[in-house]
Amino acid sequence: MTRARLLVGLTAATCAGVLAACGTLPPRPDPVPTSLDAVQRRDEAPSSAGALSPDGFDAAQRMAVRIRNVGCGSLSTGSGFAIDDHTLVTNRHVVADSAALEISTYDGRDVRAQTASTAALADLAFVRTVDPLPAYGGLAPLDPVPGASVTVVGYPRGSRLTMTTGSVIGATTDPLHENLGEVLVTDAQVDLGSSGSPVLDAEGRVVGVVYAKGQDGASFVVPVSTLRAMLDDETQVSAAPTCGD
Amino acid sequence: MLATLLVVVLLVAGPLVAYLWRTTDEWRASSEDWEDLARGTAVELERTQGDLAAAQRTLDDTRDQLATAQERITELADEKAQLGDDSAAQQQLADYQARVSQAAGKVATALATCIAGQSQLIGYMDDADSYEPDVLARFREDVDALCGQATEANEQLQHELEP
């Protein structure tokens, strides 16, 4: 009797063990996919956020223009830059005493000039154009501090479009007495014909306008604060003198 | 009694053994399928890497071509600007030469008129008794005026010739 109970107990224990093991049985495998799903990644398509145009030129080059001053028996060239669709900024001495102003863009297109006006208290001029300009730049809110990196885009000696870099050395009174107040000095290389070139900061904003070249390779720049003052006060500008006046 | 118990145990364990057997076969098949999938994916990855390298080369070539095109555009813009400068300078030279020629022509005409008048005046003076003094004086004044115009024309020419 005792033996029979033992066997029944063993059998029950075995059955209980088997049933308990069912809870830990390995699952059956999931179906194998026919192909692996590609990892979904957000497409980072190239954009023009880097100020690149469809032709690959950047905004700094596209906003710069070449100005030919055809005078009465004289001919000179300078640089300038657009601040909106139909307005250029350059130097007063670039547009002064002209019979005609001939403007061309970075890609050789001609832009017809409509009117030119000059500032009395700074070597600055504004030219309105008949044709739209390819691109224009924004003005920086403040003048650059000494040591700030700058880029100059223009047409030195009336030759091809050129970009030079440098940094702001400091501020000084105008050695040419063409501007009221202080002007900036940079070590960016400029030459005759660079007058009117935009001086850009690292973000591509205009921080000044080149108007003269120093003896020691320095360049003199009308600060953007002066440019803003001239733009904000229309009484500061008047029609540019022509050689026929 | 023992046999009965064994039968009971076998009846309980049998399905378990069968499940384990079947599950093992399914896992083996699954493993082989995963291996095939991995091999296929590796082949596809290799092909994609090749496509990527080719696309990268195409992109590099395109960038080079863009840089070359930009350089050429800048050169052409410069050449056009230089031609424009030359054209404007030549136009100014042509205008200057036209003004000089016109001034020189005025000088020549005025001088010829002056000389003719003076020659005529000399002839009158040689036979002064035949003419009224007042008439001769007025004629002299007219000749002086003509020669004055020649002088003015010459001064205009000299002005044009100034550098």
TrEMBL record, chain A:
One Pfam family recorded for the sequence: Trypsin_2
N-terminal signal peptide: 1-20
**GTP-binding in keyword set:** no
The UniProt record lists the keyword Protease: no
Q: Which UniProt keywords apply?
A: Signal
Can you name this protein? Answer: Serine protease
| MF terms in GO | serine-type endopeptidase activity
- Which intervals of the chain are annotated as region Disordered? 26-53
TrEMBL record, chain B:
Q: Which residues form a coiled coil?
A: 45-86
- Protein name (database record): Uncharacterized protein
Q: Which domain of life is it from?
A: Bacteria
Origin species, per record, is: Cellulomonas persica
Keywords, comma-separated and alphabetical: Coiled coil
UniProt entry tagged with the keyword Coiled coil: yes
